[in-house]
Design goal:
- The termini are far apart.
- The model is unreliable at about 220-239 (pLDDT under 50).
- The chain folds into two domains: about 1-85, 3-Layer(aba) Sandwich (Rossmann fold), CATH 3.40.50.20; about 95-205, Hexapeptide repeat proteins (UDP N-Acetylglucosamine Acyltransferase, domain 1).
- A hairpin with a 2-residue loop joins strand 23 (about 225) and strand 24.
- Helices cover about 15% and strands about 25% of the residues.
- It has helices at about 10-20, 50-55, 70-85, 210-220, and strands at about 1-5, 25-30, 45, 65, 95-100, 105, 110, 115, 120, 125-130, 135, 140, 145, 150, 155-160, 165, 170, 175, 180, 185-190, 195-200, 205-210, 225, 230.
- The longest helix is centred in the first third of the chain and has 13 residues, at about 70-85.
- It is globular.
- It is of the alpha/beta class.
Length: about 240
């Protein structure tokens, strides 16, 4: 199978290596905002996102992997490609261990050294990164990212677009909400609702994301009135 890689950044390099080490797959090249020329490790940049969607049959590919670390950006592109009817493939590194009783969704990548246990269900467009461990009966929902070295004990549920930072440890039976982020090295010993950033041992609240998301929606709405002036939505910190 000839596979295109959407995204020519650092995670794109990881996915290139992953495809080379997967059975039955061969990388054809990258798609990126920076079009033309040479991409990571000498593979060509074949086009951008729009050219991939509009000229899909002309590239002669069997499928695509969205190789972008940011969960929201990866979700947007994944959904656009899916609507266009482009096959989203799920490469598994030959040195990963995935139980025959686990399920892996469309477009999900399982990197070198990762372990996915029996009864685990991994959703669409997820990243199970290098050396991560997802034990028996876990559920990782769509567009989530389990970062390198993170460890999920049995029967953990991870919400959509959640990100478990490098080296996070989650005890059995915990539920982590949609879009929630855990800092590197966190230990999660209780359920976490949606839209939080937590860190520490045990993990403690750092900030809530819900207000930031609301402000982004306001800023993106050209008809939103602020201080009596249309089209000037409230800006978030750092913008």
């Amino acid at each position: 199978m000839k596979i295109g890689i959407m995204g020519a950044g650092g995670h794109g390099r990881v996915v290139l290596d992953l495809i080379l080490e997967s059975r039955g797959m061969e990388p054809a090249g990258f798609f990126d905002q920076r079009t033309g020329g040479e991409g990571p490790c000498g593979w060509p940049i074949l086009g951008d996102e729009t050219s991939l969607v509009e000229n899909w049959p002309g590239f002669g590919l069997d499928g695509v992997v969205v190789a972008i670390g940011d969960n929201r950006a990866r979700r947007r592109i994944f959904e656009r490609l899916a609507v266009a009817g482009i096959p989203l493939v799920s490469p598994i590194h030959r040195r990963a261990q995935v139980s025959r009783f686990a399920r892996i969704g469309a477009g999900t990548v399982v990197c070198a050294g990762a372990v996915v246990g029996p009864g685990a269900v991994i959703g669409d467009n997820c990243i199970i990164n290098t050396g991560a461990s997802v034990d028996h009966d876990c559920r990782v929902k769509d567009h989530a990212h389990i970062c390198p070295g993170a460890v999920l004990a049995g029967s953990v549920t991870v919400g959509e677009e959640a990100m478990l930072g490098t080296g996070t440890v989650v005890i059995p039976g915990i539920t982590i909400g949609n879009r929630t982020i855990t800092g590197a090295g966190s230990v999660i010993i209780r359920d976490l609702p949606d839209d939080l950033v937590v860190a520490g041992v045990p993990a403690r609240l750092i900030r809530r994301l819900a207000q930031e998301l609301e402000e982004e929606v306001e800023e993106d709405d050209p008809g939103k009135e602020t201080n009596g002036r249309p089209g000037q939505g409230k800006k978030t910190k750092g913008r």
